[in-house]
Amino acid sequence: MERINSKQNQTIKEIKKLHTHKGRQKSGEYLIESWHLVQEAINYLNLNQVVTILATEDQYLAHGDDLSGENIIVISDEIAAELSDTSTTQGIFAVCKIEEQSFNVQKDSGAWLLLDNVQDPGNIGTMVRTADAAGFAGVIFGDGTSSEYNGKVLRAMQGSQFHLPVIRMNLKKAMEIFKAQHVKIYGTELNPDAINYQDVQPMDNFALIMGNEGNGMNKDLLKMTNDNLYIPIKGNAESLNVAIAAAVIMFRIKS
Amino acid sequence: MERINSKQNQTIKEIKKLHTHKGRQKSGEYLIESWHLVQEAINYLNLNQVVTILATEDQYLAHGDDLSGENIIVISDEIAAELSDTSTTQGIFAVCKIEEQSFNVQKDSGAWLLLDNVQDPGNIGTMVRTADAAGFAGVIFGDGTSSEYNGKVLRAMQGSQFHLPVIRMNLKKAMEIFKAQHVKIYGTELNPDAINYQDVQPMDNFALIMGNEGNGMNKDLLKMTNDNLYIPIKGNAESLNVAIAAAVIMFRIKS
């Protein structure tokens, strides 16, 4: 067990870089934070995918017994605050390896959520967590959708990225694969000419696309779908938050 | 039309205080931000409830025509940045009067969402917006639930607070009123012994209670309900975000 007390330590400096896209790309690693996520990583990832656990003295005392076999660095509270991107950190982190997940869709491979240019990290992470809870097979992050290794996305996913594949892929390409397998693809739009989501019979195998918060789905992708769904708005709200709309549809149409 | 260019101006200093609970209580006013919310306030509030509009030169040029009859102050970009609680402000604000909304439930008064000690401003605002879209009659903020005038709550509500009553009230007291009117009250809990929300027939008049993010609903309130609902989790997620759970249930059981 190593101990680091200086913020100037080179290892800590390198780990801090994992908050940026560039830093993650260079090292092929990313950083997760909180005991819940560290636990999920240990439970769901292969041993060699969890590179290092960083814990304050308090956290090491609390969880050390569950961390046998792990490469552990005990850090000062000051370093924990430095590594965290929250204002109140628990003081426990893990550096994990980025491993590309392959997209291998078969005809009966379940329900997939596709994110088209979704911006807000909280929305994105919440949608992955909700897809997990709704029994979806996986989530595909299309072009323009914020990084799955962004701190806020990781926090909102609450570990669901360890339960189901989260894949980054051009959505046009993904849709062509679904089409070749005769998997039905549903787009979503704020348009009463689309199909009321309540009129869709619950099913097991399909793809559902959610679009950008302000602009909705890409027009070219909308044309490639089998059908497009909308949620009727009863009150005076103009629209629903994208993660809310995704949840309402996912829980309704996934059998 | 007044013009203020100094951050030291007393009016600006007073308006800045509206970001705090104490400041709002003292003045009986609150601050909203963005053209969308200002528009909603103008459309839905009485004239005397919108006290002052603050707009940068750009925003005044863009929207001045829609603001005739309003008390307008043109402010510098620097003041706009100072008044905003976002990192990228549009530069338009309104100071509105706080007016207590009375809770007057009749037997057939629709569906009500009750928030029991919900903490996260984004979750709270999103639930009000979702209740609006699902055709709910109103939302009651119970003890411990973050302020309806908090900047993040206001932003997430997207103006829905102008479409339906948002009332602050002790939930035990509110439940007694619903009970006296024979309105059915549903609690929510993460407990498979509760009723699957899908087994509830859609209806018009009821109260639905959502609990705290970490601890769920208050145990005493859970005992006062007619029934308690849960959402079966199919994947490996431990739970749903509270705003997501609220949306799934609201859109399912409100006819």
Note poorly predicted spans of chain A: none
The domain tally of chain A reads: 2
The chain pair forming the largest interface, with residue counts per chain, is: A-B, 33 and 33 residues
Q: Based on the coordinates given, report the CATH architecture of the largest domain in chain A.
A: 3-Layer(aba) Sandwich
Biggest β-sheet strands, sense, barrel of chain A: 7 strands, parallel
Rounded to the nearest angstrom, the radius of gyration of chain A is 20 Å
| Number of DSSP-assigned strands of chain A | 12
CATH secondary-structure class of the largest domain in chain A: Alpha Beta
Structural class of chain A: alpha/beta
**Distance, first to last CA of chain A:** 48 Å
Separate helix tally of chain A = 10
| Content of β-strand of chain A | 15-25%
Shape of chain A: elongated
CATH superfamily of the largest domain in chain A: SPOUT methyltransferase, trefoil knot domain
Strand arrangement across the biggest beta sheet of chain A: 8-7-6-11-9-12-10
Order of helix and strand elements from N to C terminus of chain A: EHHEHEHEHEEHEHEHEEEHEH
Could you estimate the helical fraction of the residues of chain A in percent?
Answer: 25-40%
CATH third-tier fold name of the largest domain in chain A: Alpha/beta knot
Protein name (chains A, B): RNA methyltransferase
GO biological process, one term (chains A, B): methylation
InterPro entries (chains A, B): Alpha/beta_knot_MTases (IPR029028), MRM3-like_sub_bind (IPR053888), Ribosomal_eL30-like_sf (IPR029064), rRNA_Methyltransferase (IPR051259), SpoU_MeTrfase (IPR001537), SpoU_subst-bd (IPR013123), tRNA_m1G_MTases_N (IPR029026)
GO molecular function, one term (chains A, B): RNA methyltransferase activity
